[in-house]
Amino acid sequence: MQLLDKTSPAFLYQQVIEFIDYQQKTGVLLPGDKLPSLRKLSRQFEISVPTVKQAYIELERQGRVCARPQSGYYLMAQRARTLKPMPTKWSHCAPATVQCRNMIEQVYEAVHIPNTVALGISNPIQANPPDKTLARLMRSVLSKVAEKAVSYGPVTGDAKLRMQLAFRYQEQGIVINSDEIVITNGAQEALSIALQCVAQRGDIIAVESPCFFGIIELIETLGMKALEIYTCTEEGVCLNDLTKAINKHPIKACLFSSAINNPLGSMKTDVQRQALVSLLEKHDLPLIEDDVYSELYFTEKKPKPAQLYSEKGLVMTCSSFSKTAAPGYRIGWLLPGKFEEQAKRVKRAQSCSTPMLQQWTLNEYIQSGDYDRHLSVLRKKLIYNCERMRALIAEHFPSEVCISKPQGGSVLWLRCQSHVNTSEFFQEAIEQGVSFAPGIIFSMSGKYANYMRISFGVQWNEQVENAIKTLGRLVFKYSHNDNINSKIDQKDTF
Q1: Do 115 and 136 belong to one domain?
Q2: Residue 106: DSSP 8-state
Q3: How far apart are CA 381 and CA 377, in angstroms?
């Protein structure tokens, strides 16, 4: 058993810090790892618990560890340059349509290329797949429902699943009747229905920038135009910029992820979210909230849905189980607010119903308590993966690269030097066995060419580490290639 030198002039808590330093240098502790408990080190070193806690508090003050309520202390990535807000460089946009459709198609296709580490897709459950539990529950459901499994279901979805969802929202303070909820084929259909309830072809929809490329394509497919609003890497969409846009453009609705943005991982506080809703309802503007990542929060508490703060019923919440349980099930839902009748009508015309077998299985999953236990483990693994990946990127990418520090979700947003166009080495990365999402597909107006999105929603292994090293070599190569400098006139927006 290792003991501290109690005869040394160095304070005991400082010796504990030196012990943690040694553990980190020798690789015993890696970024994302949980530090030994206070009581464990207290017993090991034969010192008091407050002394160990004093050491951990000092490490936290230095930004080297972070404390998580009812969990403990965790080692953070030390060398990562965090991406900070730089709103002064933001260039305002006009409503636009998609300019990078071909690249979006390539990113989707790359997910299915054999023997490729797919870091270009956000699929958080890969960090903790619940497939065996869901398979067991589905077999049980099948034994009970027989021929009903292949029949059409109610337009708005299974009543029991809607009841489960209503209970979960009621626990957060949202008074909602289960009959108001519309079950959809994934969150993408929920977003489509919501947009069709509040806007028509030619209308302008305000979106965050950067924005998930699936939303960009959806808006254009519906014949609408997207208007990018500056979005802070920490606090989400900027209300000052949003106000200016409302006064300048005939915006019909807003589509934001106020809980956890994709790709930034930014999150508004509940107070900021309330201010956002108040601003929009003052102008009678509907808010469509893409809420698919809110269960994957890294903060102490789950963020409150924006719908909680709506006084006029103008907020519509879209979510799904795709990021938390089963993307292949394609089960999402919509809380339509005052647009309930329109939403049900669009759903009936658009897809009539949603597969029942998957709904019954997910209902059992929630009711058994397995879903919440899975979420608890998933969040811990994602936090661990996030720190490991930030540290690995800091080690193997150029020092000029800045990395987001997300407050939830499963992706990192990286900024390379302004002359680096990440889409130019996308195919080269595929050839070397790794995919990522080039930054240019997260904007309608051609921003973010020197950015890239990388997913840490993975089963951590040596392949993942080698994939990050491969991307690092490519960024180095294109950062120092003088021929590239003349190719791009990049507007660096952060």
Answers
A1: no
A2: H
A3: 6
What confidence category does residue 83 fall into, taking pLDDT thresholds of 50, 70 and 90? confident
* pLDDT at site 45: 87
pLDDT of 265 higher than 90: yes
Which residues on adjacent β-strands are paired with residue 403? 82, 414
**Residue 371's pLDDT band (cuts 50, 70, 90):** very high
Q: How far is CA 197 from the centre of its chain?
A: 26
CA–CA separation, 451 and 446 (whole Å) = 11
Task: Give the Cα separation of 485 and 96 in Å (integer).
Answer: 27
Please check whether residues 37 and 105 belong to one and the same domain: no
Q: Is the pLDDT of residue 230 over 50?
A: yes
Residue with tokens 């006084």: 311
Q: Is the Cα dihedral 377, 383, 384, 385 positive or negative?
A: positive
2 part of a folded domain: no
Contacts (Cβ under 8 Å, ≥6 apart) of 54: 13
Contacts of 190 (CB under 8 A, 6+ apart): 182, 184, 318, 319, 320, 332, 333, 334
Count CA within 13 A, CB hemisphere, residue 8: 11
Structural domain contains residue 424: yes
Per-residue model confidence (pLDDT) at position 34: 86
In a domain, 118, yes or no: yes
Per-residue pLDDT tens digits for 306-338 = 999 999 999 999 999 999 999 999 999 999 999
